Amino acid sequence: MRQTEVWNGETIIAPASARAPVPFFPMTRAEMERLGWDACDVILVTGDAYIDHPSFGMALLARFLEAHGYRVGILSQPDWHSAEPFKALGRPRLYFGITAGNMDSMVNRYTSERRIRSDDAYTPGGVAGKRPDRAVIVYAQRVREAFPGVPVVLGGIEASLRRLAHYDYWSEKVRRSVLLDAKADLLLYGNAERALLALTRRLDAGEPIGSIRDLRGTVFAVPPGWKPQADWREIDASEIEAPGCPMPPPDPYAQRPVSLPVEPQGNAEEMSERDEAQGARSAATETYRVDRRGSEHRATQRFARAANYSAFPQEPVGAKRDRSREVVRLPSFESVRDDPLHYAHASRVMHLESNPGNARALVQRHGEGPGAREVWVNPPPLPLSTAEMDFIYGLPYARRPHPSYGQAHIPAWEMIKFSVSIMRGCFGGCTFCSITEHEGRIIQSRSEDSILREIEAIRDRTPGFAGHVTDLGGPTANMYRMRCKDPAIERHCRRLSCVYPGICPNLDTDHAPLVRLYRRARQVPGVKRITIGSGVRYDLAVRSPEYVRELVTHHVSGRLKIAPEHTEPGPLSKMMKPGVEAFEQFRALFERFSREAGKNQQLIPYFIAAHPGTTDEDMVALALWLKKNGFRPDQVQTFLPTPMALATAMYHSGRNPLRPLARGETVAVVREGRRRRLHKALLRWHDPANWPIIREALLKMGRRDLIGNRPDQLVPWQDAPAGKVKEERARRRVRGGKDA
Hints:
alpha/beta, pyruvate-formate lyase- activating enzyme, ten-stranded mixed sheet, three-stranded parallel sheet, 26 helices, about 30% helix, about 15% strand, disordered N terminus, disordered C terminus
């Protein structure tokens, strides 16, 4: 029997299953019969091709349930136009589990300009159109038609980011929780292995799904006024922080929204704390007001905050509050739908309640009158231990696509088949990214031995392996084994980023475990080369020149992607990204160690156009910086508002939820198609096709001085010949450049 980890009485690491693992999980009734199954215990429906590899969520969860003795079937990319394809495996004994796949179906199908994409990396042949829009809703509806009464459980990135009322960029409106639109029984979000196992066991024991209300990381609908027990305390979100004032009427003479200076802001509690701790960068004892209505406690504040930064109030260590029996009431769906300020307020409060160490349950009312329902969100899952991570990633994956696909090319599989995920989570807190909202900000790392065993499995079992491991990474390449130095501080912290506006002194930024892993991995027999494909967090990397030397000398394939995202303080402050100075420090180390290794290598920086907080002047400054530094981006990205992200709340509301909303800080938002195209064009200032729109904008801005042929000017007065434009476009196609 393996070592076990117990959580809430549930064992996640199972003994070796009495049933031998199947080569592949069945996708047809004929495959079930060959396995000798009369029925599946659980059927998982996914919008992706079925690839039996731990990078694909359905395969990971199927193997996980199999290890605990359950028979799992998979319906991969079923035709959603009728209920018949959903009957292929019959009625499951316990429940249907539904996901859109590894990507949100709307992001998968549409560009940031809402144009339909011509391909789908998760489909055999890269063919587009094999999954519906808002796939979890459609799949759930078809399952209900096929088998009325069978429990339906939602999961994956699409469901996770839509667990509450959310702004939908594609319809330009606030939609209800996806749980209600899908008419599902339960929604699992985040790292859901523990909740999934507990749910499966309790359903297997005969417990109705409608009574399972105590699992972390779950969302369910209840009648108004429902509470788990009578002694639970409800707290209105406005008690945590005032929602702020209504949006002032627009100035008809203003050319663009004006952002107020980014300065330390806060409510009365926050400013009181900041006055005591002004300039402190080490542990301090502060007075922390626990209850806004008068009750105060003195608590040791054992975390250090960057000077003047108190955007997210901290949970006091040692405060005597039973948060496990508190629920925070968010503004109702109707309220956030009708008032963007209330939407921003709900977003800010929800993010305040995101640390699993101190998060409270959330509740949000949907509807009025007799048909009203309340969406209840239990606190996030606790982080997985290293032993749990090793168990999950060490299961007997076939490590290849289902045989029914034959020799079909599946782009997503080709990209990751020789790579290894070494960790989950990200503490960067970038406002445009949804990793933290889904996987959490606490890093969950595998052991070195587990990772080396997977490299050996790639070597021995993955067809086509020639000795090149293409990635050892995860959401970020270099956060492996980094966590808060003190578990008590980690449990009580309510900041959303450990590295903004500066790296927290309580964060362990030691790169030594990662350097040791790289060195051990290179010694695995049969491994000729290991490159790092995940993005490097450069503000962390510069703290360890030894890591940068190791990376540059041994693990760069000639080009290393890195994401400064912008150069100007305005947009960077809304992204919660470090200043360009950190990028310059990393670039200096990169170039130095490349020279020392005798290698000609390049940094490939990525930038975002039209992010909230970005003005036309900011984009012009970025374009000039790109030209001065010799960067000619081929792949450019225009900001895409995804559900639940803080930047999406900025986009929808025009307010800054990183600061108390009562301060009324507005955010410049780029909505119009032409300005979005201009911002994207400025990233590709060197493309002759973009010169006309850039030149027109410069003239309107009164920047004629930037038009001409001097090195310090951005674009020439004359358009390029048509032949040169075609040549540039052909060059981009050859190099694989495209707009996201």
